Amino acid sequence: MNKFYLSEIYIYPIKSLGGISVNECLIEKKGLQYDRRWVLIDKEGTFITQRKYPLLALLQVSIVEDKIIVSHKENPNNSTSFDILQHKAKLIPVAIWDDLTSGFEVNNLVSAWFSDYMNMPVKLVKMSEQEKRMVDPRYAMNNEIVSFADGYPCLLIGQSSLDNLNKKLEIPIYMDRFRPNFVFTGGEAHVEDSFKDFELSGVLFSAVKPCSRCVLITINQQTGIKSSEPLKTLSKYRTTNNKIMFGQNLIHQVSGIIHVGDELRTCLKFI
């Protein structure tokens, strides 16, 4: 019987910017603490991501004490920062795919820094603690809520899945292309496809939907340069109903602190 252990935990405080590797993290109702709690929106109030703006890949986020710091990967002196709790008082609408949610602009100076970088007017918006953006009811189990993530509180990928993919690629890629929250070791490639329920540090997770992948995974997170891979290779062996699948979307019950090294105690689906 294979044993599975959590090898990496990532949070992405600002949607579609560089993630942060952590050794432990509190999981809240909307997902991991600070994960996708901020998002950039355009002048229409629609979220923006690397899908259309690959240069976002070059912005790295870090958390130092009670501050969020955003810096350019190639020029760290080009940076901005703000207090985690800081935001304006007025709620403004935010469109994430088909969801209309809301948040607070952080402040004018931070939005101006991002607007200058993007060469277009944008605002950095923080999600309200009271906001209840619902998980797709087709996959929710108990009216779960989610942050500014695409649709689910957490994403899980097995290291074996990436290792298997890299054997098929001419140039290996890093896990950061897929932006997981949890990476685990153990088992064969894509064993996560067969996960149903599992427990980490007393927190019960359910794998509810394979993650369909888009052009974002073709963007090198170190350079911001797009290519055809790994979508081209994945399309040859990971296509289901015309969608390319890699990883599992998760929902969870209760809160708790998740640690690197925790064992995933699983219940496999019978398929």
UniProtKB/TrEMBL annotation:
PROSITE patterns for the chain: MOSC
Domain MOSC, residue spans: 128-267
SUPFAM superfamilies: MOSC N-terminal domain-like (SSF141673), PK beta-barrel domain-like (SSF50800)
Pfam family for this entry, one: MOSC
Alphabetical list of InterPro entries matching this protein: MoCF_Sase_C (IPR005302), MOCOS_middle (IPR005303), Pyrv_Knase-like_insert_dom_sf (IPR011037)
Protein name as annotated: MOSC domain-containing protein
Source organism (scientific name): Pedobacter mendelii
